[in-house]
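Re: the request from the purification team.
They wanted to know what the chain is likely to look like in 3D before they choose a buffer screen. I agreed to run a prediction and write the result into the notebook, where they can find it.
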Amino acid sequence: MKSKHLLLGCLAALSLAACQSSSKDVVYEGIDLEPSGNPIFTDAWTCDPAPLVVGDRLYVYTGEDIYKDGENIGLPGNYNIADWRVYSTTDMVHWRSHGIKLRPEDFPNGKKGIAWAAQCIQKGDKFYWYVTYNTPEGGQCIGVAIGDTPVGPFVPHPKPLVVDSDTQGRGWNDIDPTVLIDDDGTAWLAWGQNSYIAKLKDSMTEIDGEITDLRLQRYIEGPWLYKRNGLYYNIYAGSGGRGGECINYSTAENLLGPWTFRGQVTGAAENSFTIHPGVVDYKGHTYLFYHNGKLDRDGQKGQSLRRSVCVDELFFNEDGTIKEVKQTKEAITEPLK
């Protein structure tokens, strides 16, 4: 009996060790990138950053631009985001690339090679990656893929949350999902080139109730929901930048409004018409992630169709308004502990 208990104990210990090793391998597998200032990711062209803090580590989910000079893939402007990637850090200076973790064709009705902005959030012990993809018929869907770890593997939910017929407005309308889980556990989804918002069901895979257009001022696309000291922020790509989009923001005491326009967070991105915000609190600091077109690689110049993710620290005034962020070449220079 004693030897049986010993054997069972050894097997349990081996199983636990294997699980811990497997979990560690999943979280930390990838390649380390040399610190380079902004842009911070140099192994690919990356766009539309979405940060997420899990424990001691900060993850950033991005699209990957793969447009090459002379290509014509039939999308307005020739934007070609082929897939979604994941990066992570524990100090904001040293980054690890976890590679491609999701593609639009992974979804049952997803068209290969046409991805849009996305955001991953955690609820309970699951991770929900909200994305926009095109269907073979040319329509757009907002779908979600679900994983057990921040780097997956992610399993696409078979049914999209939002389809073209759910909304009306300007073209490219059902894009750029962002999700905020409020203090009471209610999850909210915002998206679109109209400033849409809707509540999510507890399953996180369905809209719960009506879709509302917030009609935010100087709004174009790319919303990001954020909450600080009881005040809601909608931070978004908007009008007013010189030569392209800038990042504007509005605040409210209720997610359904009324929303008050507060001004500009930062101006237009260098060498890129678009810009896309992602805001996160991490280790006592607040950071603004965005993209520009400054990374040259593989014999191709960075530009509006070959964008790269950047980060700078964001600060608040005493009244909760945001101090304008200066976009730097240095990024974050001092490693966090």
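For the purification team: Helices lie at 2-28.
Please add any questions underneath this entry.
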